[in-house]
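How a chain folds remains the central question behind the approach discussed here. No coordinates are needed to read the tokens, only the vocabulary itself. For completeness, the protein is quoted in full, as a sequence line and a line of structure tokens:
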Amino acid sequence: MVVLVLIGLLGGLITAVSPCILPVLPVVFLAGGQGVAPPGAKEALTEDGPPAPAPPNRRPYAVVAGLVLSFSFFTLLGVTIISALGLPEDILRYVGLALLILIGLSLVFPAVERVLERPFARLPQRQVNKEGGAFALGLGLGLLYVPCAGPVLAAITVAGARGELNLGIVALTLSFAIGTALPLLVFALAGRRVAERVGAFRKRARKLRIAAGALMVLLAAGLAFDVTDAIQRSLPNYTAGAQSRIEDNTVVRQKLSGLYDNSNKELSRCADGVDELRSCGQAPPIAGITKWLNTPEGRPVDLRAERGKVVLIDFWTYSCINCQRSLPHIEAWDRAYQQAGLEVIGVHAPEFAFEKDADNVADQARKLGVTYPVALDNKLTTWNNYRNRFWPAKYLIDARGTVRYLKFGEGQYAQTEELIRTLLKQADPSVTLPPRTGAHDDRLTDERTPETYLSNLRISGYVGDPLLDDRPKTYHFPAGLPAGRLSLDGTWTAGYEHFTAGRDARLAFRYRAKNVNLVLGGKGPVSVLVDGRLVKKLDIDGTPTMYRLVDDKDARDARLELRVGAGVQAYSFTFG
């Protein structure tokens, strides 16, 4: 629980200083100052005679309190409430925009402000009544603040959407909200401090209130017409590296994966690739599947109906080269041990959006020789049920429905086959097993260049001009390219899922491997050069597919250069 709270706090702090929050900072700053102070404080400065002392300005705290309450409540329960009432999915956004406009008008027109503060009029403490408008402003900002998200908020949102709440989710949500609120509170307090110290603020209180109100109305209009999105895209994503290190590391993945399903907590008893069978609890159900392939009339496979058989569940995705290398072993086991009581089930968990298309998966499964049942887990429900975080990943389930072994990634095929044989013998001591398939371990070395995503948030090993998110930019190769690094030249658009080539686009990569693969989509030509020599020309047209760029007999160090036609999309490199 303590780790979850720390993850939420750090994730919230990063979100609060990211580019996505910049449009609301002027509103928060002015909300904390006397330029948007309650009417009582303003009147105390303008009445005839000696001015009465203004009451304490607690507006910064009221704004932040409203934001934390609104964000936490509607993130966790918003989907449930909206579904129960049959309301449009984007109703909360419109409510937030309307509230922001209402607050802005109240600062310009005192009559509107009196109406807005009327709900707080019966509260016993006079000063609390004065902060009603600030609290309402915080409520509105909380509704509009939800899209500013990273992996932590994604986990919170998924849990809220499913209505599967527990103490861990609530703690993560509150700590995330507090983490986002702290920098904003500092900003609001700074606004109050400036207002108290700078005489111009006190002398022009009325004008500043009108300016703040107009700014809020303009902000609402900008949010409604997505003008703020264009502003954010033009800013460098200066928090991407910090967010990746804090929210997307192994510890965080372990904590967030399966967070909202206590039924799978016993899976933590299993360690990756151990050479023995363990008892890791009942196998979670295969749920949330959009379609089944390779089953009679597309009927689903129920694990409860497989009791008495040994089940191997393989999480994979068709463009993953690591998955493709493991598939021949799984297919061999399916052929060899099916009659002896082995049931193989592939769970296709997409890594990219194009991998959610059922026709694409069916076509690639056929090309890869996959004939056993495949479940399309497009919502990653089963992925979360199994607390999975790798492609590929194998889970062995015994005849009583208990998970006994798991293996993340490639390798240890001979060991996995031996454990399959052991479980088959335990299920039926009289069974006659066929000869071993001859599975052997693909002995990977640490020297081989690792898988590399062409993603503005997940890329590693990049050197050169800073990446510009989601907009075309002209890049230039550096003077030298170190081993294991890649760089861009010409015009590229760096997106989250892929890089799109523009005019004179080139890509260089210093790698060590025997073969090089790249997932490419779109339409256009690609020329492949190795150490300056043209080795292949590709004509890309259609659905993203993995292409073999280099296929040598032995591993070597080399410089790969791609000359890519405009419109071609590049997703991820893998090396063998």
